[in-house]
Each structure stands twice: as C-alpha cells, then as structure tokens.
Design brief:
Layout (H helix, E strand, L loop, with lengths): L6 H9 L6 H21 L9 H18 L27 E10 L4 E9 L5 E10 L4 H19 L3 E6 L2 H8 L9 H11 L4 E6 L8
Parallel strand pairs: 1-4, 4-5
Antiparallel strand pairs: 1-2, 2-3
Length: 214
C-alpha cells in the first residue's frame, strides 16, 4: 500500500503509474468533489456523491469516444480566437494542448480558489494545480486571475501550442477583443495578452459550464 506525504506526492504517484487513464479518472473525481463543495455552499445543483464514480466512468468513456473520432488538423494561425459552446469536453487537435481553468468564491472565508487542468493532444493530464487567493472584488476578476495562472502554469511546463478554455464568456471575449479592456481587471487581461506572446500558437475558447442535477 502506497503512502503519500502530501497532495504533490500523491499527484506524482498517479502520473508515474503505468495506468495512463488513472490521472484522468483522478482529475474528474477531484474536480467533482471540489465542484460539490462550492455548489452546496452556494445552494446550486450538484452531483450526488454516490454518483461521482459512475459519472467518472461515463465521462472517461465519452472522452475516449470523442478522441477516437477527432480528426487531426494543422493550425496555421498564430493567434486565432475561437468561441464555442460544446456540450461535452473534447480533446484538442494535435499539436495543441488544452488548458481548462475555473475560479470559485468563498465569501465567508474572504478567499477565492483557482483550478487549472492541462491535457495533451492524447487527452492525458500533463499538469494540474489549485490555489487559494485573497478574495478579489468581483467574480470576473477571479476568472481573470485563474486564466492568468493557467497561462503562466502552461509556460512553466514548456507547452507551446495551446487552447485556453474557460466558462467565463466575459473574460474570453475580453481576451479576443481588439481593443484594450477598461474594466477593473483590465490590467490582468493585458498581462495575459503579454504572456500569450510567448506561445507558438494560442487561442481562447468559451465553453458552457456543465449543469448537474441532484
């Protein structure tokens, strides 16, 4: 029986396992628990805990089915805005990696939480992180900070071609806009744009948050 010292040690153990799908299964279960904690606190629809494992199995099957039917294609544009709203998560086209980011508020603790998951063209998780920050003024600012954290994390991993995917339509539209952002989080948007120049190719995509019913 393996004993892990902390979450980082646990993650290293998972990613070094010969079962390559273990990281995908773990990421979904961990995200589901995190999502439920936020949903219960905010009194919004959540996943029944007893259905998390079955849901994970369905999503993994769904992912592999989508991956097998995905056609590989070249991407000629260095920076190409993409705004789409797929119902289910889809693997990125080769040679892209897909970065999913999200933020959550904890008003009672005056804190916010940031989550990031990065998958390669094969759909395997190559990096994941979560972080807590002091509570910003708005939800949009939390999402902007989560996006900046995600893009910085991808650069640290040495990823060169990325699709940055988030459920904040406001933030994605701000990143795809030709003009500067005059909002309170405008400086964060500009930071992201500067960081984006370090990638060989990058695009920003909006997706709807999947809705769960108890």
């Amino acid at each position: 029986m393996n004993v892990f010292l902390d979450f980082r040690d646990l993650w290293l153990g998972i990613t070094s396992n010969n079962d390559h799908s273990l990281a995908d299964r773990f990421a979904y279960v961990a995200w589901s628990i995190w999502h439920n904690r936020n949903a219960l606190r905010l009194k919004t629809p959540c996943i029944p805990y007893k259905k998390i494992y079955a849901g994970m199995q369905d999503r993994v099957k769904e992912f592999h089915s989508a991956k097998s039917s995905t056609k590989l294609a070249n991407h000629d544009s260095m920076v190409q805005p993409i705004i789409s709203e797929p119902t289910h998560w889809k693997p990125p086209r080769n040679p892209f990696c897909k970065i999913n980011f999200d933020g959550a508020l904890f008003q009672d603790q005056k804190m916010a939480s940031i989550g990031v998951v990065i998958r390669n063209p094969g759909g395997h998780v190559i990096g994941a992180l979560s972080d807590r920050i002091f509570l910003p003024a708005t939800v949009d600012e939390v999402e902007a900070l989560a996006c900046r954290k995600a893009i910085s994390f991808a650069l640290d991993l040495g990823v060169e071609n990325v699709v940055l995917e988030g459920d904040s339509k406001i933030i994605i539209q701000a990143l795809n806009a030709d003009s500067s952002c005059a909002s309170s989080y405008g400086h964060i948007i500009e930071d992201i744009r500067v960081l984006a120049l370090d990638f060989a190719s990058i695009c920003f995509s909006h997706v709807k948050r999947r809705e769960y019913c108890c």
